[in-house]
Amino acid sequence: MRLFLALLLSLFACSKSEIAQNGLGQPSPPTGAVGFRVLGIAQDAGLPHIGCVCTHCETARAEGHRELVASAAVEGKTGWWLLDATPDLPAQIHAQGSMPKGIFLTHAHIGHYTGLMYLGREALGAQAMPVWCSPRMASYLRSNGPWSQLVELGQIEIREFRSDVPVKLEPGLQLTAFQVPHRDEFSDTHGFLIEHFEPPAVNRSASLVFLPDIDQWEKWDYPIEKLLQADTHLLIDGTFWSGAELPHRNLDEIPHPLVSRSIERLGPTARETGAQVRFFHLNHSNPLWNRNGAEYAQLRASGLQLAVTGERVTF
Ligand SMILES: [Zn+2]
Ligand SMILES: [Zn+2]
Ligand SMILES: [Zn+2]
């Protein structure tokens, strides 16, 4: 009995510590219910952040914790699709318990596509994994190593989406990429709108907006408020809380919408419509990492949320 208890306790301790490491825990395969799962909420370089000894990074190190890079799974009736290929792709795919039916890429910054390396010869050696991206991103992947090798060896199969043209994932589920302003050195940048239509109804029953990286809302020619509708979940850029994280930069030069400003701008519409706004893609410097802080309390009071790694939302 004592041995049994000890075994049970060690099993419990093991699963608990695994959860503590990256928030994903044991593999939890999609259930066949349509929706999405958050697979990471950190900015491209994760947390702890290389070369940084700030309180957030040091606390994470002390706890043996890593916040995974921003990503989500779209879950359908027939399988799931990965949004962005982050440097944490192995853990994120493991947590889903199976390979995705395809990968959609927003842009060519390190947190959003370099996980493709794990599909290559040195790692998985995938076979014809569909990788969806914009024509500019596709041409970047085809013409630069090591990505070009994935294409040449047939490990990935590039499929180009066009801005604003829906891609059918399965009956009743589609993804539409839309272009957004961002620092576009190697590729342009897209956000994704995933829509679910429950047949036989023709009206959509739920949707997800996936938008990890964008310049300030004012620089986008589309008013973000229009995306906030009753049936909508938004996973949006929460890189910085305020300009205090970048003390030597002019606020107008910070190329992201600040969470403190987004709360002011989106809060009223979200409360009015019932749209669910979750911030993710947090820089290591963001005070929202501290759940006991005033900023986190302010976010909660606004009715908007912080995405949680591992959480699953059914439409
Ligand atoms: Zn990013
Ligand atoms: Zn740090
Ligand atoms: Zn970026």
Structural overview:
The protein starts with a helix and ends with a strand. It has a single domain, classed as Ribonuclease Z/Hydroxyacylglutathione hydrolase-like (Metallo-beta-lactamase, Chain A, 4-Layer Sandwich), CATH 3.60.15.10. The chain has a seven-stranded mixed sheet. 26% of the residues lie in helices and 22% in strands. The chain has helices at 2-22, 55-63, 89-96, 110-113, 135-143, 147-152, 259-273, 294-302; strands spanning 35-40, 71-75, 80-83, 103-104, 129-133, 156-160, 167-170, 173-179, 190-197, 204-211, 232-237, 276-280, 305-306, 312-314. Helix 8 links the parallel strand 12 and strand 13 (305-306). It is of the alpha/beta class and 315 residues long. The protein contains eight helices and 14 strands. The structure holds zinc ion (ZN) (3 copies). One zinc ion is lined by residues 107, 109, 182, 213. One zinc ion (ZN) binds at residues 49, 52, 54, 56-57, 284-285.
> What is the C-level CATH assignment?
Alpha Beta
Widest β-sheet, arrangement of strands: 6-5-4-3-2-1-14
Terminal Cα span: 44 Å
The distinct ligands, each listed once, are: zinc ion
As a percent range, the share of helical residues equals 25-40%
Biggest sheet character? 7 strands, mixed
* Low-pLDDT ranges: 3-16
Count of discrete domains? 1
